[in-house]
Amino acid sequence: MSTAPVKSKTNDNDISAFTKVFGLLVKNAFAFTVLMMGFVHAVLMVIFGVAGVLPLMFFNILSVVVYTFCFFLCRVGYIMPVYVSIIIEVTAYSVISTYFVGLECGTYFFLFSIIPIIIYFGSSLIKGRKRWSVGLMLFLDFMTFIILFVRYFYEQPVYQVSAVARLILVVFSAFAMVFAVIFYNAMYILTSENKMSDLEQVNKQLIVDAHEDALTSLLNRRGFLPIVRDLMNDKAKIPFCIAFCDLDDFKRVNDSYGHEAGDEVLQHAATIIKQELPGSSICRWGGEEFVILLKGCDKMSAKVKAERLRKTIESNPTVFFTKQIYVTTTIGLAEYKDKYKEPEEVIKKADERMYYGKQHGKNILVFEDSEE
């Protein structure tokens, strides 16, 4: 007997944890970059100190101080000076270190490590026409590499470090370059995905807002009418009725208790309708009017449901602070028939019956015309 494979929750949790950590790094990208740069130069300080290249040891001490200061600038939101400081410091280190220990140590690799930093942070800090400056910085970075390579290709360095020190410097510098390329590309991808995800959520919310009433979370006309139209065009010919409800003397509620209380009454009425008619499509038609699609109901069964709703609204007041606000509703009911070609026609019939009820006592259900 074969069994279906069970999806591993551990892997999903690991991926989720990784995404959260990486997302945290994205939000604090500048501070993380500054910390990493400070750590790199602390390691280089030790390497050059052991190798006996004191000028570069002192330079890296200064670099650690610069990045410590930059970290505090990040904390208070001064990002542009940090961005400029990273580019200047890395360029200066590449030039000075190449002068002292030569090309063989590979310290010029750091010129490549700041390329993704220039692009990634430049795209967020520099907007519009000023983005030409990002291209200029990339050009200058590349020209610095060309000049260094041409200038020191045959020239002997000031310090001849040991083969072990050269190997360590080359590997460490190459690692910093590869790490920067991978990390900032990954950050760019994740940031893009997050933006796309946020955009999708915004679009979904816009669709919801376009079809939903903000106050009651019920459908609005734009969201309701297509549902009725689809049911009218359904080949299965499922019976349905439309109930048109209007809260009686609603203006009195606003005048007596204020519009905030009126909003509470509308929300309370919407809640009652949803509870009394679960599964029904409910629309706030406008103001204090509600339209309900009673799917699968003929006139008699819809009459029972609508009358029960009327009594429930009548007997359940809205609690507004210390007050209880009682309202009633007049309901007009119309059964769908083939003679109705558009949703508005059957809704209009229910509206007319509701209006008749308003003119003849209110707080009643009208389910047929006076001549029927």
Q: Summed up, what is this model?
A:
The chain has 372 residues and is of the alpha+beta class. It is built from 13 helices and seven strands. A hairpin with a 2-residue loop joins β2 (281-286) and β3 (289-295).
Descriptive notes:
The longest helix has 49 residues, at 163-211. The protein has 13 helices and seven strands. The two termini are 66 Å apart. It folds into two domains: 10-206, no CATH class; 221-366, Alpha-Beta Plaits, CATH 3.30.70.270. It is rod-shaped, with a radius of gyration of 36 Å. It is of the alpha+beta class. The chain has a five-stranded mixed β-sheet with strand order 2-3-1-6-7, sandwiched between helices. Strands 4-5 form a two-stranded antiparallel sheet. The model is unreliable at 1-7 (pLDDT under 50). Helix content is 66%, strand content 10%. Helix 3 runs antiparallel to helix 4 (79-101) and helix 11 crosses helix 12.
- Enumerate the spans where pLDDT stays under 50 for 5 or more consecutive residues: 1-7
Strand order within the widest sheet? 2-3-1-6-7
Give the percentage of residues in beta strands: 5-15%
Could you report the average pLDDT, rounded to the nearest whole number? 88
- The structural class is alpha+beta
Write down how many β-strands occur, each being a DSSP E stretch of 2 or more residues. 7
Domain count, please report it. Answer: 2
> Which assembly state applies to the chains in this document?
single chain
The ordered H/E elements are: HHHHHHHHHEHHEEHEEEHE
**N-to-C terminal Cα separation, in Å?**
66 Å
